[in-house]
Amino acid sequence: MKKFSLKITKLFILTLIGLFSAFIVNEAMHKKLKALSKNSIYFYPKHNQSIIDFKLKQHDKEIYILGSSRTAGFERGMFKNNKVYNYSLIINSFNDIYNLVNRLDIGKGDTLIIGLDQWNFNKSFQPRNNNDFKINNLSLPFILFDPVKNINNIYLIGEDAIKNFSGFRNDGSYFYGKRLIVPKRELEDFNFEDTFNRIKNGNRRFEYGSDVDLYQIKVLKRILDFCKKKNIQVFAFSPPFSPSVTKKIKSKKYDYSYMDKSIAETKKLFKEFNFIYKDFTFYDLFDDSYYLDGFHCNRNVYYQILKDLGVPTDSNFDNQFEVSEKELNLLKDYFKFELGD
Amino acid sequence: MLFNSIEYIIFLPIVFILYWFLFNKNLLLQNLLILASSYIFYGWWDYRFLSLIFISTVIDYSIGLSIAKKDSKKKQKLLVWFSVISNLTILGFFKYYNFFIDSWFELFNSIGYEIKSIWTLKIILPVGISFYTFQSMSYSIDIYKKKLEPTKDFISFASFVSFFPQLVAGPIERAKNLIPQVLNKREFKYDQSVDGLRLILWGMFKKVVIADSLAPMVDNIFNNYQDLEGGILWVGAIYFAFQIYCDFSGYSDIAIGTAKLFGFELISNFKFPYFSRNIGEFWRRWHISLSSWFRDYLYIPLGGSKKGTFKSIRNIFIIFIVSGFWHGANWTFIIWGLFHSLLFIPSFIFKTNRNYVNTIIAEDRIIPEFKEFFQVFTTFILVVIGWVFFRSETLTDSFYYLFQMFFSFSVPSDNLAGFLFVVPFLILEYFIRHKERLNFKISENLDLIISTLIIFCIILFYNKSSGFIYFQF
Questions:
Q1: Which of A189, B73, B127, B362 registers the highest number of CB atoms within 10 A of its CB?
Q2: B415 touching A, CB under 8 A?
Q3: Quick one: B22 and B151 in the same domain?
């Protein structure tokens, strides 16, 4: 027993020495990286961390934005109240939203903004995953102490921030910088070709369907029930498609009749709970140039959505087309490129 | 309590010190400590479900004694059936009730009757229920079959049922292996404890470094498979094969290692399954404690392979499907079991399933023969295909996934980072393939250096929110 205790002690001491050395090296490296990042972009992909883990560490908010990539564009600067965080891109389904609402510390008087992707109501859209949350990788440096505060001081985070200049801003929203760096024709959905293909083939979330999946309505009701009981104010919306995609969806050639039916059901449900719901599926205020691809709008549209929902907005929001002056300067700092194509 | 939690790092040394320094002279106190620690370990998750373990313990303890007292075979049979039905009722209610109710209503809905299920209940699945009910039940069956004498020592029996290292995810222990160890005085042995410590660290490494690093990549691929090319889906399925292996075998190693620290030897659960040369060998190397449980308590009582080809094939189907169902109340697990039975039956018919019982790949060589390599590769690919059913949320998802794997194949160009974990791990496993318990004779200093490096890796990769996959079963 004595020999074993000695072995454990040696192991313990060795581990402590090693940890202390690692801490010294890590802190030095961290400082160097911070200087390199100029407080703007954190790009050192040393340690993988899931987005969900990182986002769930964000506390003390009053406005919570939940949804898929189609709600990821709401920026803190758009709101009057700046205690806002965008928790988008960590969910896959309404069940995920329900789980997330339960998990987050949302309380009385807080505001919840949720995007209700149309395809989630489609009974024929089978590959609907109901995991706890969607888990994607966010490459972040390994920081031993206070990683949330350290990272939140930086404007743009994650490995993608340097690879594509696309990444999460420190308010949880997503910035699509890649579009400004590569020629437009190299983008995946150039001229919405990819979205049109989805519609043509009836696949990848654009499955045809005439029936509403009533189970999803039930899950939605559960979310609203929860919010009502907790006195949470809910604003929900169906995100927009670009006008040319809308035209295709509406054409008689394809059956997307579940959309109108589900919108009617959703309206009824929200009315019952006295929460705000607006349908922006076919949003005709903006032309195709305001869309990043067939079903992701740009910041101008996001800002207008907030106004239309009746969420108090900041009238000083730097509402420049696609990219703000600050982000444009960052791009110029880090990349040699010519804007436009 | 999770093995990879801070609580456990505090809990284990406390129990160890009390066990060897305070109670080492009194067997009853040591067993009481094991029992109390086991209940704390389990109750840390949810103390309400301790009652289920207690009920299962009391039933099998009483039945064990009653069987031994009864002379009539008929009465003994009645008692053993009581044990089986009670344990399966507990398991069935908590694990399968909603599955049967929902499947029943779905069947009605599919033929046009829109019925709302009011029978579905909000039931929490008690962690480890499939493990301890099987362990407890096997005790009564063994007594009925005269393979074991019942114990009168309730504390020892309760310690056997709830023994914390293997309580929630196995290995599923046999009474005739563990109870005699509980009943007899344990001596501290340096070599046994060092091996135990090594197994704990190796298990933790497999879980924290390999399995948890692959987990987000697997989730990412399986959650977004509809948008991905077939090549990447193959990569996702291969990653999952290693994720689940490292997760579960890691747990087993920690369990076996922890038991060794307290002077116990548990049965093996994994013996390098991905080096198997056919499906029969795979099942002798994968989750051994469960497959041997089903062999002894289901396959053989059904007649095994002794009642003609037709009945043997029927029995194979039964044990594989039941084994799949044991993993969870979902059709994906049932189809996974069925898929493996279909892989196994040809080797059973051609009598190759008992090949390679006592050997491992490249038994006396450094590198395997080409034939062996080919056999291992094809077996692995088949197992990987099976994992798609196991990992998918629904059957529809699994068929879509497989369809894309085969019919939209392209050479993957991204999502390859996981191979940085998989390939070195596989090479390492290959070199230690003869020593599944890691009982190497190496110098103290080398052992210390390797152990420290492993601890570093564990700390660096540690993610406190990750649980073990097999807890859900």
A1: B127
A2: no
A3: yes
B373 and B414 together in one domain: yes
Task: Tell which of B163, B185, B207 closes a domain.
Answer: B185
Closest residue to A92, CB basis, from B188, B217, B223: B223
**Any domain includes B334:** no
Smallest Cα distance from A127 to chain B, Å: 6
Which DSSP string corresponds to A155-224?
Answer: SEESHHHHHTSEEEETTS-EEE-HHHHS-GGGSTTGGGHHHHHHHHHT-TT----SSB-HHHHHHHHHHH
- Supply the range of the domain harboring residue B428: 191-277+356-472
Rounded to the nearest angstrom, the minimum Cα separation between A232 and chain B is: 25
Q: Write down which residue in B121, B156, B185 finishes a domain.
A: B185
Out of A7, A53, A127, the one facing B465 most closely (by C-beta) is: A53
> First-to-last CA distance in chain B?
16
Same domain, B258 and B363: yes
Tell me whether residue B327 is one of the annotated catalytic residues: yes
Q: Please give the tally of structural domains in chain B.
A: 2
* Partner-chain contact A14 B448, CB within 8 Å: yes
Same domain, residue pair B110 and B224 = no
For residue A156, which phi and psi values (nearest 5 degrees)?
Answer: -125, 130
Q: Which residue of B has its CA nearest to A48?
A: B213
* Residue A301 phi, psi (nearest 5): -70, -40
Strand A63-66 relative to strand A276-279: parallel, antiparallel, unpaired?
A: unpaired
* Cross-chain residue pair A127–B463, CB shorter than 8 Å: no
Asked if the structure places residue B47 within a domain, the reply is yes
pLDDT tens profile A27-44: 776 666 566 555 555 544
Q: How many CA atoms lie within 13 A of A135 on its CB side?
A: 20
Q: Model confidence over A106-130: pLDDT tens digits? A: 889 999 999 999 999 998 886 555 5
